[in-house]
Amino acid sequence: MQSTFRSVAIVGKYMDTAALQQMQSDLTRLAHHLLAKGLHVCVEANTAAYVEQEGFEQASLEQIGSKADLVIVMGGDGTMLSVGRALRETGVPLIGINRGRLGFLTDLQTDQMLDEIDEILQGHFQLESRMLLHSVVTRAGSQVLPVVALNDVVIKSAFRLIELEVHVDGQFVSRQRSDGLILTTPTGTTAYGLSAGGPIMHPDLEAISIVPISPHTLSYRPITVPADSVIEVIVVSAADAQMSYDGQGQFPLAAGDHVRIARAEQSIRLVHPQDYCYFDMLRNKLNWG
């Protein structure tokens, strides 16, 4: 059967040399398998140094979106998050091979990856769209740090309570003293938001969850709003507050900063095996029994 995808890119845990060394044999095995099927194979530049195989093209992460119609990511959820953000403008779908810990976003395991990749190449897969968040900080009238997140945008202090004021669509919601606040997509509700007592939202939902981190007043509870809401968080007192996105970037905040969070214009597409079930994934990853 002819492959649904003709050009396939491979991205390993490209910012971690030690991890790439550990997965070298699996990367090589995957590249050899795809090349043997007559596919055009493109390997991310940092990853390519650890692929013992000729016949593939090298490209930067930014170039891959225009060269491939499927991207295979070998790593953990963190790698999937960064690759998804980098390729969001292209719409190219991603499939993950888990070389991390829990792997909520990486469906395949290395011992079965070739058989499962073959099924996907033959058109036996599910395709799913995941929403993103766009955040920007306004300081003294100027916009700084526009970022996009697949999981969450987090405003927090490491050691002291901070005071935050929350507005949704221009309406005042609350003023709270807490360790911080998590603004999360449905994808991100199984990440930091879950640890902070937030709800798990099915990824088909279009919503944003606002989850307080250790609020000083225990009546402050998580609240979920429609995905088209515009959320504004005003930093009243900052202490050592900072903002992060997907747990991968940090930016110090100051009193008076306004953080605007809304749904991003782009989304990312994930490829799942044909028999993928979200509830099976939750049960296995969270040990529900």
TrEMBL record:
UniProt xrefs under SUPFAM superfamilies: NAD kinase/diacylglycerol kinase-like
EC number: 2.7.1.23
Binding locations of NAD(+): 77-78, 151-152, 177, 179, 190-195, 248
One of the record's GO molecular function terms: NAD+ kinase activity
InterPro entries xrefs: ATP-NAD_kinase_N, ATP-NAD_kinase_PpnK-typ_C, NAD/diacylglycerol_kinase_sf, NADK
Keyword terms: ATP-binding, Cytoplasm, Kinase, NAD, NADP, Nucleotide-binding, Transferase
Active site: 77 (proton acceptor)
Reactions it catalyzes: NAD(+) + ATP = ADP + NADP(+) + H(+)
Compartment(s) where it occurs, according to its Swiss-Prot or TrEMBL record: Cytoplasm
Cofactor: a divalent metal cation
PANTHER family: NAD KINASE (PTHR20275)
Function, as annotated: Involved in the regulation of the intracellular balance of NAD and NADP, and is a key enzyme in the biosynthesis of NADP. Catalyzes specifically the phosphorylation on 2'-hydroxyl of the adenosine moiety of NAD to yield NADP.
Annotated family: Belongs to the NAD kinase family.
Name used for this protein in its record: NAD kinase
